Amino acid sequence: MPDRDLNSSKRIGTRDLPGRAGTVSSDPVMAVAQYALSSGLARDRVENIIGTRFDGLSPGAILPGAVGPDLFRVILDESATEAPALEVAQLSPFSFFGGLERAVLLAPTGKAALRTMAANFSVFHSRLEATYEESSTRACFSLRFPGIERDNGCCNEVVMGVLMRLLRCVFGMHATPEEVRLRYDLNGRRSTYTDFFGGSPVARSSDGAHGLVFRRSDMNWQQPGHDKKVFALSNSRLAKIAEQRRQASPSGVYMEMINASNICATAGFFSVAAVVARAGVSERTAQRIAKSHGTTIARLIEQARLRLLREEVSRDVNVATDDLSRLVGLSDSRALRRALKSWTGKTIREFRESPF
To answer: What is the pLDDT of residue 2?
Structure first.
């Protein structure tokens, strides 16, 4: 086993990428937000995308998953950074995976580790779908994420990169994949990706998912000193973590409020009452939690409206202004102009040219 500390910011067994020193937040989306700032993006612009102020976030705050793709879209457009997703993966601690980190560290084999990850991935991210499949000679761990089109797969690349580091730390060279599959064009030079993944070839995915493909025999290598009872206990606890976190953490309720805002906006509902009803909390509680995150419910609704506009303009840059107004529940194009100026500082024409 490599002799680096498990939370080292350096990648295990691979050549260092040129990047920034230190580690980033264990929350995946917060990690991307912090990285966006370190890449030179203006603080007020990053805060506009995440929908809250950094100084209003409580310690350990969790940002909604939909923010990550929006941030990477801007990073890809405006930063000169080479392979930004791999840099975030390089700097992220293994606590990035929460309770899933311990499950991998305690697993008897790579097969058991990846099966546990796939079975319990909702503990880490509610919208990421993970699968582990085997053929007679190969084993594949795959990820699918609904927002992948918006950031060219960057968020998934971060997850794959941190997972690769963690597996290599625990299982050494046995966790070197035969092939890395990415759904979209690379966000950097191919050689950078090959180096990061230990010399493994990087190919275009044919099934709409990102994936790590291993030799099946390598996944059966036994980790020395494995304790079956501790591993079983860890797995049983994972099944309870998601619900416990949602009930105990204001950040979990805050994520529900963000998701409720987006769902309501997509359905054409833009009222505070609709959002709190969807989130399953009282308006008083919702306002208190929003305030603890440096925002308001009204601001969450604005962000949901802005996200709808960005997605629509990204699909059709020539969509009629009146249609955009109706999409986000505004009375006319004049109201839309005022709203866009307030939310982004841009005119409608400027927004069409650069929605993110």
So the answer is: 33
Which of 51-55, 109-113, 140-144, 185-189 bottoms out in mean pLDDT, i.e. has the lowest? 51-55
The superfamily (CATH) of domain 249-353 is: Homeodomain-like (1.10.10.60)
Distance in angstroms (rounded) separating the CA atoms of residues 354 and 150:
14
Question: CATH code for 28-238?
Answer: 3.90.1520
Q: Is 60 left (phi over 0), alpha (psi -120 to 50) or beta?
A: left
Give 107's DSSP letter: -
What is the rounded CA–CA span in Å between residue 73 and residue 65?
14
- Is the separation of the CB atoms in 135 and 188 below 8 Å? no
Looking at residue 3, its pLDDT comes to: 29
Say how many residues make up the chain: 356
Helical pair 297-315 and 272-279, crossing angle rounded to 10 deg: 90
Q: Maximum Cα–Cα distance for the chain, whole Å?
A: 68
Tell me how far apart the alpha carbons of residues 136 and 159 are, in angstroms, rounded to a whole number.
26
Q: Which tokens hold the place of 304? A: 């949901």
> Could you give the residue range(s) of every CATH 3.90.1520 domain in the chain?
28-238
Tokens of 156: 């998934």
User: Over 80: is that where the pLDDT of 264 sits?
Assistant: yes
The tokens for 283 are 């308006």
Q: How far is CA 73 from its chain centroid?
A: 13
pTM over 0.85: no
Please provide residue 133's backbone torsions phi and psi, each rounded to the nearest 5 degrees: -135, 150
